[in-house]
Design a protein that fits this description.
Helix content is 53%, strand content 0%. By secondary structure, it is mostly helical. Residues 16-57 form the IMS import disulfide relay-system CHCH-CHCH-like Cx9C domain.
């Protein structure tokens, strides 16, 4: 159980400095939802902005998966 000694490991929580796309739009939408007691019909503007932002980033970004999975893959070849 746990990690084997000698393996590479990166704590994903320490990668907080990486850009977080659509964070402003998501926060404004959630604030609007909180102010309107979870009625999203009053938050159409924020909802549309968030949708446009997420659709734009989904087309651009290519998912690399979990960084620790790829590190394990790379170290398997060395042994």
């Amino acid at each position: 159980m746990g990690r084997k000694a000698g393996n590479l490991y990166i704590n994903p929580k320490k990668l907080g400095g990486i850009a977080k796309p659509c964070m402003k739009e998501m926060v404004s939408f959630l604030n609007c939802m909180a102010l309107n007691k979870c009625k999203d019909d009053n938050c159409e503007k924020q909802k549309n902005l968030l949708s446009v932002c997420m659709n734009g980033h989904a087309e651009k970004s290519k998912s690399w998966g979990n960084i620790n999975y790829h590190l394990q893959r790379l170290t398997r070849g060395r042994k």
